[in-house]
Amino acid sequence: MVANSERNGISSEQSIQNGTVPPRNYEAELHLVRHKLEAFHSNLLHEVQQRMSDIVNDLEKDLRQHELQIREFQSPITTINSSNPIVSFHENNKDSYEERYSDRRRKEANQNSDMSKEGQQKSHKQFLKKNPEKVFQCRESYLTTLMQVGHIRTIYNIFIVGFVFYLMQNVLLEYLTSGRITLGAGIFQTGFANIHYALGVWLILNAYTCSVYYALKIWSNVRSKLHQQEKLRTIWSYLWLMGYILGVVMCLYLPAKFCFKLDIKYASAAALLMETLRLVMKQHAFVRTICGRAMQGKLKSDDTADNSPTMPPFSKYLYYLFVPTFLYRDNYPRTSCIRWGFVAARFVECVAHVFLFACLMENHLKPGLENFGKMQLNASLLVRTVFQLQMTSMLMLLSGFYFLLHSWSNLTAELLRFGDRMFYRDWWTSGDIFEYFRKWNILVGDWLYEYIFKDCYLYVFKGSTAACGMAVFVISAIAHE
């Protein structure tokens, strides 16, 4: 056997020398091994990062739930005097964004209006330092966090049972009285009549909103080329400013005119007008932010340098148009994944609220209004009608809050992996009407403060908080009307 092996070895060496067996390509083999090792390293690193992200998210959820369970039975006095367990997850410190704003209003109302220019600049810098821009962070909504407490979850389940019984009552009454089941179909037919016109106007509005990005890009590029010609630069900016104001006015006027001209009914018209306001507010926030960058800090009174690019990519602007916030940032905190179970739950809530609105309008609002004025008015009829409409309207107001600011906003945020879910605060614990309005709608409140109050304070009314507050109130009232 040894002789045979030696003979085979000698024959293989002779065959290699004769060229019958090609030599091995060690470089190709090393390249293949290196490629496999790099792929293994990349996959392993991705899996480790994913696993660590899941562990961190689970740990944050457990800590949040643990703190809620510890402090959920605190007395009201202790809760007021100590730190709020829910607020600790939604604010960086006790002096919240809105509380600092109210404190500044009280303190600066007594300042002398005829201060010097240096005093004004110093006051503006102090104002910006004490009232910084909002910092986005990954956090859940109040009700989402409260639902982790078993007692609050029980109350939520009670509301679900009540809603199911209410629908069953409507179904049985409709079937026994008319022999058919509509579930508010009449309201859908009349309220969403000519909805295709509303969709057409909505598409035109979105196309115009997207064109604002490219118009602003043209303005910024040409303005940067006119840096040595100050007069032409100023004329160029004022021309675009007038064009922007005209565009905003037309965006607000034309959809309202089309609602009357095309006979768009109330449900479709309400959705279209709300979308119009949303897009106009988004446009202004983006234009205000980019113009501040393009003017190289001339519209900023702080000493912090803005290292962000003047014009972000269009993808960032498009993402901003659909995320549930009115404050523009180049980057927002993002969640690691989409919780499809959470998405399904919020979608079911949205559908349920649509049917609830239809049933309330058909069974309670419509009967109280369609015959009002046709019958002889007396005290009994007046009291019964007023209180019936009042209770129904209050229920629709609360349901509208839950539908828009919780279910719909959380649904879009989860689909877009938008991390900051602070759409509202605990307005149900408010002690006065001003605190209630600050907590009711954080989305609109942040926009009014960032782009109306601060700009009026710094550049229009020069430190007059009373005038700035009145401007915010008037603009908010006009938009609501």
UniProtKB/TrEMBL annotation:
It is a multi-pass membrane protein. Residues 1-20 have a biased composition (Polar residues). The active site is at residue 480. The chain crosses the membrane at residues 155-175, 195-216, 237-256, 338-360, 381-405, 457-479. InterPro entries: MBOAT_fam, Oat_ACAT_DAG_ARE. Keywords: Acyltransferase, Endoplasmic reticulum, Membrane, Transferase, Transmembrane, Transmembrane helix. Residues 91-121 have a biased composition (Basic and acidic residues). GO terms for molecular function: O-acyltransferase activity. Residues 1-22, 84-129 are annotated as: Disordered. Belongs to the membrane-bound acyltransferase family. Sterol o-acyltransferase subfamily. PANTHER family: O-ACYLTRANSFERASE (PTHR10408:SF8), STEROL O-ACYLTRANSFERASE (PTHR10408). This is O-acyltransferase.
